Amino acid sequence: MVREFLLCLRLRCPMCWQGAMFAHPLKMNAQCSHCGHVFDRGNGYFIGAMYSSYLISTGSGILLLAALVLTGHLSLHFPFTERDWLALVAVAVFVLVLGPLITFPYSRVFWVWAERNGLWHHGDAGRPDRLPLSPAPTDDSSK
Ligand SMILES: [Zn+2]
To answer: For 131, which of 42, 43, 109, 121 is 20 to 30 Å away at the CA?
Structure first.
C-alpha cells in the first residue's frame, strides 16, 4: 500500500499504474489510455480531493513558516519588520495560490487511489434521491 501511495506521485492511473491520468498538470484525461478507467465519475466526485489538496497546501505552509522562523528569516517579535511581512506574504501566496496548483493533480490521483483501496466510496447510487424513477402507474381502465 505504501508503494502504491508513492506511485501516485507519478500521476499514473491508480487502477493499472500504466496510463497517464493527466495530459498536463492542470488537465485531467477523461479516461485511462491503458485500462479505460473513467476518472471523473460524476458531479462531486473530486470534492474530497479539494479538501486533501487544501490540507497538503496548508501543511506545507506551516512547515514553510517553521523553516523561516528556525532559519531566522522571520522573527516572531512585534512590531514585524518589513522583511517579516514580506516572508508572511510569500508564505500566504504559496499556500493560497501556488500550493493548490501544485497539489491539484496529486490530490486527484490520490483520491482515485483512495477509493480503489476502500478508504472512501462514491456511494450516491443508493441514496433515495438518486434511485431511478419507477415507471408511472398504468391506467388499467380498459378492462
Ligand atoms: Zn488505467
So the answer is: 109
Position 95 in a domain: yes
Does residue 98 sit within a domain? yes
Tell me what pLDDT residue 17 has.
93
**Residue 55 Cα to ligand 1 middle (Å):** 27
In the structure grid, which three cell numbers stand for residue 3, read together?
508503494
| Residue 74 pLDDT grade (very low, low, confident, very high; cuts 50, 70, 90) | confident
pLDDT tens column, 22-51: 999 889 999 999 999 999 888 889 998 998
CB 104, CB 53: distance < 8 Å: yes
Q: How far does residue 74's CA lie from ligand 1's centre (Å)? A: 45
pTM for this prediction: 0.71
For residue 1, how far is its CA from the centre of ligand 1 (angstroms)? 17
Total number of domains constituting the chain: 1
Name residues with Cβ closer than 5 Å to ligand 1, which is an ion: 13, 15-16, 19, 32, 34-35, 37
Whether 109 is covered by a domain: the verdict is yes
